[in-house]
């Protein structure tokens, strides 16, 4: 690549895009890479401040920004994704489906630490819709060492750093505990909230069972829902540490593997996550704290998309929610377009 005075560049091939910016009017490419420069183009080049332009001269060991951008996209791409057209060394990654977006944060950091290149993504473990922008890639200089791009590819190790997990249709069973509800002393207010939350996804609530505060009854209700085809069982009520709150023990009595009882999230600290093994599948059995009934957004909103995509949660996943795990209870809620649940 060499620099040429624009008056002497007629007939030469432009090696990079030229962008024109007019405040509040236009920001777009006026000449694309590969354009053969004509005499009548000269005033336009001068109007955008280009008295000299770069003509591409292929050099061993160096890559043009657009070639390098293709490599960055190859590091990101996975199933259910497509690229935008390359433009000024940039490629955007677009979702082809609705799903749960995942990011390998460690590999992303390593690539961005190399220098002269970047990948910017939206937050992982969030819902994306078909057509959403997932990430943008760019090579900073006009040309970059091929060795640097090879280093970036090695970080990926042949595995994409981005992933979309398709959302699944789920059948939901709700087990509601509490003598006050069971005996009709108060009306259940938890069930409608759970139904509303699941209505945001492709799901069907196949039933709600209201039981007294007896561990055996709670355990039996959970297992019955699973045997009747529930993909997720949600338990409401009896989730605190009071002696007469029996739900955590009842979930354990099913034989389910307890992943975590407690989460570094407010509202939602008393969440219980477990999995019941049934016919080769892991069925989530979730104990929801009372805050889910009356707080607009809670820990349940953070884990629900992952449950709907069969993203198996482990204790580390729950522990990492601490940073960003404080809901500010804003007067006007903008979730998910806020910091709640979005740690580093």
Can you describe this structure?
Its EC number is 2.10.1.1. Belongs to the MoeA family. Pathway: Cofactor biosynthesis; molybdopterin biosynthesis. Keywords: Magnesium, Metal-binding, Molybdenum, Molybdenum cofactor biosynthesis, Transferase. The protein has helices at residues 42-47, 65-76, 105-114, 146-156, 179-182, 190-198, 215-227, 247-253, 291-294, 299-308, 315-319; strands at 2-5, 18-22, 26-31, 52-55, 62-64, 81-83, 90-95, 99-103, 117-121, 126-128, 133-139, 143-145, 162-166, 170-177, 203-211, 232-236, 257-261, 272-278, 281-288. By secondary structure, the chain is of the alpha+beta class. It folds into 3 domains: 2-55, Molybdopterin biosynthesis moea protein, domain 2; 62-166, Aldehyde Oxidoreductase, domain 3; 170-322, 3-Layer(aba) Sandwich (Molybdenum Cofactor Biosythetic Enzyme, Chain A), CATH 3.40.980. The strands form 6 sheets. Strands 15-14-16-19-18-17 form a 6-stranded mixed β-sheet, with helices on both faces. The chain has a 4-stranded antiparallel β-sheet with strand order 6-7-11-9. Strand 6 (81-83) and strand 7 form a beta hairpin. The chain starts with a strand and ends in a 25-residue tail after the last helix. The model has no long low-confidence stretch (mean pLDDT 91).
């Amino acid at each position: 690549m060499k620099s040429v005075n624009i008056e002497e560049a007629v007939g030469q091939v432009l090696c990079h895009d030229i962008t024109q910016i007019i405040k509040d009017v236009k920001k777009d490419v006026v000449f694309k890479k590969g354009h053969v420069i004509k005499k009548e183009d000269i005033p336009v080049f001068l109007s955008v401040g280009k008295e000299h332009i770069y003509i591409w001269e292929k050099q061993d060991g160096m890559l043009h920004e657009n070639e390098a951008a293709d490599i960055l996209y190859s590091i990101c791409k996975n199933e259910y994704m497509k690229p935008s057209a390359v433009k000024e060394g940039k490629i955007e990654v677009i979702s082809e489906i609705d799903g749960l977006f995942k990011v390998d944060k460690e590999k992303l950091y390593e690539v961005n630490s190399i220098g002269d290149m970047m990948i910017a993504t939206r937050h992982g473990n969030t819902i994306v819709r078909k057509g959403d922008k997932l990430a943008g890639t760019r090579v900073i200089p006009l040309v970059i060492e091929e060795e640097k791009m090879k280093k970036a590819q090695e970080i990926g190790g042949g595995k994409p750093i981005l992933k979309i997990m398709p959302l699944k249709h789920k059948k939901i069973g709700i087990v509601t505990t509490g003598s006050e509800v069971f005996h009709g002393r108060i009306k259940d207010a938890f069930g409608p909230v759970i139904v509303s939350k699941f209505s945001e996804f492709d799901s069907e609530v196949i039933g709600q069972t209201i039981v007294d505060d007896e561990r055996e009854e709670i355990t039996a209700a959970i297992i019955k829902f699973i045997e009747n085809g529930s993909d997720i069982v949600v338990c409401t009520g009896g989730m605190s540490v009071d002696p007469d709150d029996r739900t955590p023990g009842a979930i354990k009595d099913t034989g389910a593997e307890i992943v975590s009882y407690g989460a570094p999230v407010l509202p939602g600290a008393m969440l219980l996550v477990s999995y019941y093994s049934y016919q080769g599948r892991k069925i989530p059995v979730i104990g929801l704290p009372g805050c889910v009934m009356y707080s607009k957004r809670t820990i349940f909103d953070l884990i629900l998309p992952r449950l709907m995509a069969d993203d198996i949660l482990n204790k580390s996943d729950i522990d990492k929610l601490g940073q960003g795990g404080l809901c500010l209870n804003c007067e006007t809620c903008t979730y998910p377009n806020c910091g709640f649940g979005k740690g580093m």
